[in-house]
């Protein structure tokens, strides 16, 4: 297994390094967070991926999209071994270069079992719950502060990572090892679309509403230009109707 992991890591690193040799190639990375960014090379790779490809290809760039664990993706972008982090909040990595215009909004909510009787009366209600979160994720400034305080006390928060952490949180709630978890509503809806347990969960409360971006590498000379192209490009797609067409492929509507 370690040998396989070594070759996989070498392959990813080599592929990213090779991409860097061409200034017209833009490497975007993230963990899967569908419908924002989904399975690479699929018919629907995610609406942020589609926007990036349409906008940047019109300026002569070739976009490559790769998936990996979130923390690894952040590290690759910060160190300049990848160009952009898809589905990022500024609070995920404040040192990245972000477009002026948001590429969507994330509505993070607390998800609980359908029969849960908890009445949400504000963020203090979360102190009563055993909550699941994903390693390296930001959930907005207020929730991040709350989670940091709980983690410092080593109580009430379970941090998960690895492949498909959302599914792991779902199963931990069903098995009563967690009372709930925090996730973006669009991501949860997409994940549960054909899930056998889709009727066993409900939204307890929405706890944040934050703009979503593609954040670019602070050490890459093209980053400011790429961010500006996306800001201009999203407005152009909105005016021409192309944005609406892309979003409809994922069952989404324009956030403006």
Description:
With 256 residues, the protein is of the alpha/beta class. It has 2 domains: 2-104 and 212-248, 3-Layer(aba) Sandwich (D-Maltodextrin-Binding Protein, domain 2), CATH 3.40.190; 105-210, Periplasmic binding protein-like II (D-Maltodextrin-Binding Protein, domain 2), CATH 3.40.190.10. It has 8 helices and 9 strands. The chain has helices at residues 2-20, 47-57, 70-78, 141-152, 165-174, 185-192, 223-240, 242-248; strands at residues 25-30, 62-67, 84-88, 105-113, 131-134, 157-160, 180-184, 201-211, 213-216. The N and C termini lie far apart (47 Å).
Average pLDDT metric: 91
Name the CATH class of the largest domain.
Alpha Beta
Q: Helix share of residues?
A: 25-40%
Poorly predicted spans: 1-22
Main beta sheet strand tally, sense and closure: 5 strands, mixed
C-alpha end-to-end distance: 47 Å
The ordered H/E elements are HEHEHEEEHEHEHEEHH
Based on the coordinates given, report the CATH architecture of the largest domain: 3-Layer(aba) Sandwich
Structural class by SSE content:
alpha/beta
The overall number of domains is 2
CATH topology value of the largest domain: D-Maltodextrin-Binding Protein, domain 2
Number of strands: 9
Shape: globular
Number of H- or I-type helical stretches: 8
Q: Into which percentage range does the β-strand content fall? A: 15-25%
**What is the spatial order of strands in the main beta sheet?**
6-5-7-4-8
